[in-house]
Amino acid sequence: METNRKVTLNYQEGQDALELPVLEGTLGPDVVDIRAFSKTGMFTFDPGFLATASCESKITFIDGDLGQLYYRGYPIEQLAENSDYLETCYLLIFGELPTQAQRAEFQKTVTRHTMVHDQLSRFFNGFRRDAHPMAMMVGVVGALSAFYQDSLDIGNPEHRRVTMYRLIAKIPTIAAMCYRYNQGLPFNFPRNDLSYTANFIHMMFATPCEPYEPNAVLVRALDRILTLHADHEQNASTSTVRLAGSSGANPFACIAAGIACLWGPAHGGANEAVLKMLDEIGDESNIEEFIDGVKDKRYKLMGFGHRVYKNMDPRAAIMRATCYEVLTELGLENDPKFKLAMKLEKLALEDNYFIERKLYPNVDFYSGIVLSALGIPVSMFTVIFALARTVGWISHWNEMISDPQQKIGRPRQLYNGAERRDYVPEDKR
User: Fold this and answer.
1) Which of 70, 224, 320, 347 is the most buried (most CB within 10 A)?
2) Catalytic site residue 306?
3) What is residue 138's predicted lDDT score, i.e. its pLDDT?
């Protein structure tokens, strides 16, 4: 909302000063509304959007200095402890926690949409068996618009609602199919008698040869991972979805764009990088030498620190407890790789170098260990991330499309290329 305060900008001698209104959000810093600045004929310059709010949103709030993450006002710690992923999906989409009846209806609707069109399964035959699962995710999710053409009118709220249900329901099925195809295994059909996360684990690991019942402790652990990664405000992939959606592109194409952005190692590949780092360290006896190498800038410490959080990542403590629950349940407390990870954590947390720089373990440090313990290969880590983040993407996409002030995204640039020049014929160059 607009405040009574203004920022006065004196930008050119002989010109009247420009008054820019100050906007105030519910939480977080105030914002200077610079839209009127375009009248000066100049643009602002902010690579990486480090000081620019690209939109208004009611979905997620982050305070990196205080280590706070709220979904629709609810602290992530409370949701991870008391809620589950599907209820969190409802909250992110609709803005409120569901009543018992609303929750039952939502779960029923999502469960009934988990099947994918039979022809969609044939798409996978076009991929090499060793194709990266994220490559398949980008292609198959983008192709969904060819199969569900009855709900592509983005101006129709009912069409948007149906599409959101379909995406939440079908992304786990597609993710499991990517894994099964990559492993040379037959696809598993969804089971309507299982919870959302238990069904995903079933589709990943069940075999037609015998009955399969997911382990409740492991289901809860994976459900927490999904909840903790469901949304994270205006990050790179969410901003990509919003930018693609601002053009009026269909929602399946927008989500595919988000998946492609998430695939980048600087974004969705952090927990994968943690496992690779542990492999490179190799043994507990090498940890001190590795830490010295981090201080000397010879090695990178993955899974510690965060671009947004300047304090402890609020999701990390939850994931740490979950990590120990999983290792205990599977009897992996003495597994060499997991003992290596825990010793690295301990030494880094006790070292003044990391304490002074506030380099605490983040959620990716622990989630990578948990996913590995669950038997999920490293190549699938970012796919799991995409599965979790889908609800955040579609919530932001729906919020943007519903906003009457929404315009197509069109960032400007500071051009520093060649000045105007005339074409020179080839024989005179």
Assistant:
1) 224
2) yes
3) 96
- What stretches in the chain show pLDDT beneath 50? none
10 Å Cβ neighbour count for 258?
A: 31
Catalytic pick among 113, 202, 229, 306 = 306
Residue with token string 């209806």:
105
pLDDT at 51: 86
Domain match, 110 and 168 both:
yes
Residues 185-227 pLDDT 10s: 999 999 999 999 999 999 999 998 899 999 999 999 999 999 9
Q: Which of 267, 292, 313, 427 is catalytic?
A: 267
pLDDT at 27: 92
Asked whether the beta carbons of 277 and 301 are under 8 A apart, the reply is yes
Report how far residue 124's alpha carbon sits from residue 101's, in angstroms, rounded to the nearest whole number: 38
CATH code of the domain containing 150: 1.10.580.10
Compute the half-sphere exposure of residue 170: CA atoms within 13 Å on the CB side of its CA: 24
The whole-angstrom separation of Cα 339 and Cα 135 is: 33
Q: Which of the residues 223, 231, 313, 364 is marked catalytic?
A: 364
Q: What's the domain range around 9?
A: 2-53
